[in-house]
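Would you mind giving me a polypeptide sequence along with per-residue structure tokens?
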Amino acid sequence: MFWWPLLGWRLHIVIDVFTHSAQFLPSPVLYPLTYWGFEGWAWNQPGFLLLNDTALALVRAGLAHRWRRNHR
């Protein structure tokens, strides 16, 4: 069970590559080999925030529905 937290860490790295723009903390994809970065969709843009908040609300609603169904 030690590897579960490591999966979150690796997922965070993948998310960083796609959510950091070149102007705001650019993340080099293959750092030891090259400084090449990816022009990602900045997480502080309104469209991304709307998508993120919607996804979080859907997950929360799904978890609440499952909890209610199991505790009846």
Q: What stands out?
A: The longest helix spans residues 46-70. The radius of gyration is 17 Å. Residues 34 and 51 are 31 Å apart (CA to CA). The chain is about 60% helix and 0% strand.
